Amino acid sequence: MAGGIEIMSLLSMTHTNRPTILTGDRTTGPLHLGHYIGSLRARVQLQHEAQQFLLLADTQALTDNVGRHQKVTQNVIEVALDYLAVGIDPAKSTIFIQSQVPELAELFQYLLNVVTVARLERNPTIKEEIRLRGFERDIPAGFLTYPISQAADITAFKATHVPVGDDQLPMIEQTNELVRRFNNTVDRSVLVECEAVLSQVTRLPGIDGKAKMSKSLGNAIALGATPDEITKAVNNMYTDQNHLRVSDPGQVEGNVVFAFLDAFEPDVQKVDELKSHYRRGGLGDSVIKRVLNERLQSLIEPIRARRRELEEDPAEVLAILRRGTMRAREVAGETLSEVRGALGLTYFQR
Ligand code: TRP
């Protein structure tokens, strides 16, 4: 497992105070190994070294799930279970539900005034998402503006560091633009700029070799997967379609099993040996799949066990979320007092 120091070195030293991290996930389904390797693993490390806020982004999920609100709300608990199962400690990290922090909606509304529709339409991630979802000209206003909502999530906590995938970089850029604009408008440094923290493994392929592991593409391995589900997924992984006989030389690049071994097998030397043997020929797919299967089984086993244990106690999970949400409201509330003050929205004591 990657060490904390390695990850911490990504946190720049420009912030003299303890860094504040905010990140989160849309609650559209349980999390999978792609999330684990891309972000969850780092969060477990970072919670010891930074003040960390983890957002269950149900409000944001609603922006492109109109009519599927039940799916969104049901998955709040699923994602929370995944966080807790991988080792996010609610005593160290604040896990909270976006929709239950009205301060975020309020800040979102103020920020909407310092951005133009043209700027929103230029966001490359949004452009791509609009294309993928087939919105064309019928873009829900909530969807077009979700980067502003995300900026509110980040700035309400004065987050200094935001761990995200590279597809989210335009969001961070836009957030910082908003911060400068807002501060300029009120002539005070109320909001704080942030930095993106990219994970080392940005993208895990799906078991079918598609660029991204994704539940909706049906190519994912869930963090709560059973031993049988893991074995089946590994056996279904794409390898090298020209590697027909064991004796044939095989290709490692683009081979899903090796992409996973690179991501999950800490014994780099062992992986290198397997790679050169595979390239030479004489190493069958069943052997590399067995090695990977063992690795994934031992990785997921404790996560699944902890998840099952927590599933038995939904009241405890809700209590954790309630406490986290109350704490989040407190912190966001302080920022919002400053924001209201800066805007002169201080008619009487609230
Ligand atoms: N956009 C993120 C996702 O798709 C979720 C998210 C919402 C987020 N607000 C955020 C991430 C603020 C980082 C910072 O999963």
Describe this structure in words.
With 350 residues, the protein is mainly α. It has two domains: 4-204 and 313-349, Rossmann fold (3-Layer(aba) Sandwich); 227-310, Tyrosyl-Transfer RNA Synthetase (Orthogonal Bundle). It has 15 helices and five strands. It has helices at 4-8, 33-46, 58-62, 69-86, 102-111, 117-122, 124-133, 141-144, 146-156, 169-186, 227-235, 256-264, 268-280, 285-311, 314-343; strands at 20-26, 51-57, 93-97, 161-164, 195-198. The strands form two sheets. It has a three-stranded parallel β-sheet. The protein has a two-stranded parallel sheet with strand order 4-5. Strand 1 (20-26), helix 2 and strand 2 (51-57) form a beta-alpha-beta unit. Helix 5 (102-111) packs across helix 9 (146-156), helix 9 crosses helix 10 (169-186) and helix 12 crosses helix 14 (285-311). The longest helix has 30 residues, at 314-343. Mean pLDDT is 92; it is low at 1-6. Tryptophan is lined by residues 22-26, 55, 57, 60, 150, 153-154, 162, 164.
